[in-house]
Amino acid sequence: MLGPKMRFGAFIAPFHPLAENPTLALERDLELVQLMDRLGYDEAWIGEHHSAGYELIASPELFIATAAERTRTIKLGTGVSSLPYHHPLMLADRINQLDHITRGRVMLGCGPGSLPSDAFMMGIPVSTQRDRMDEALDDIVQLLRGETVTHKTDWYELCEARLQMTPWSRPSVEIAVASQVSPTGATAAGRHGLSMLSIGATSAGGFNALSSNWAIAQEKARECGQTVDRNGWRLVGPMHIAETREQARADVAFGLDKWLYYFREIAALPLVADGDGDPIDQLIASGMAVIGTPDDAIAQIERLEQQSGGFGCFLFMDHNWANWTAKRNSYELMARYVFPRFQNLTENRTVSLEWARDNRDRFIGQARMAVGARVMQHIQEKGTENIRPEILEAMGLNKKPDAAE
Question: Kind of pairing, strands 239-241 and 7-12?
Fold first, then answer.
């Protein structure tokens, strides 16, 4: 029997350098989701950011509403909604509306907010963000399950709050909690039996924390009478693949340095060590990124499977390291050559080909006998003079005498 089919998607923050036209950059993000839909990707997760100029999407819900009109099957998630920035009823109501509009294709990703500059502009103390996420998540889970909630905190109040429309998805839309190195996300996922988004799964800290964070989620779920499912666990990592490793390295010369600059100077997360070393070599050697071929991508996902113990979906961390043409090619190569390895798409084809090969003589013999029988029937009815010479020769009925005879 076939096991679960691994899903594939992208985590689209997105990252757009300042030199680009932001209007066209957003349009290209929409085109990317359309491409993914055509190629058979399962999911696209859309970020929420309000400062720093690179991660341009302020409302993942607006983006999802637009993308839903342009796609057919791909599921669309907020990646992630920063819960401290929203009143829980307002966010739950918008997600519920999208659940109806998309007929169940929307997912809610939750987190505390990744950019301190976002929180600063709203007067939200960074030290409170994780606590506020936990408070809001407790209420959003209930609201999206159609329950009535009364709850007062020091930053919002719910008074007999409920959604006007019964949720389209039952018992609710899928909810996933962002998790990196700290146990915050894993604990929240376990408390409510939710899915988990391991955003930094290939960074050194995130990779090392995979198994422990899943164990934390499981333990918390048992304490709270919940269950967590590995099929709902998403792992996120950056990749760019091409037909050869040399081509992949040449492709990422387009935008890798700008991406590294943003993480080093703005997001305060240096991903490669300072110095004279080649950043591509550093990213590959550390396991942080794949810059190579489909085989390299397969090896990375197998490495993540072994470290984590199993997960349900791998998400590209979308990055714009390469130009649009090379980026599209990377996404297509992933669908053509990496998906089949983890989705058992070629197993039956392989067995069928080998079976046909191993029985070729039997099948060809039967086919020749069938043709011969029909030719003999025709000869009996019409005589040999009406049969083409090459057919008679093939049947051994028009063999010329050997010279020795």
Answer: unpaired
The H helix count followed by the E strand count for the chain is 17, 12
Smallest CA-to-CA distance from 4 within 348, 384, 342 is with 342
What string of DSSP letters covers 256-292? HHHHHHIIIIIS----S-SSSS-HHHHHHHHTS-EEE
Distances (CA, A) of 148 to 22, 108, 109: 41, 19, 22
Backbone angles phi, psi at 215, to 5 degrees: -65, -40
Question: E strands within 144-268?
Answer: 149-152, 157-161, 174-179, 195-198, 233-237, 239-241
* CA nearest neighbour of 178 among 85, 110, 92: 110
Domain spans of the chain, in order of start: 7-347, 359-394
**Per-residue pLDDT reduced to its tens digit, 37-96:** 999 999 999 999 999 999 999 999 999 999 999 999 999 999 999 999 999 999 999 999
Condensed to tens digits (0 to 9), the pLDDT of residues 8-27 reads: 999 999 999 999 999 999 99
What span, in angstroms and rounded, lies between the C-alpha atoms of 287 and 202?
Answer: 6
Written out in words, the top-level CATH class of the domain with range 7-347 is alpha beta
Q: Which residues of the chain fall short of a pLDDT of 50? A: 401, 403-405
Question: Whole-angstrom Cα distance, residue 28 to residue 140?
Answer: 32
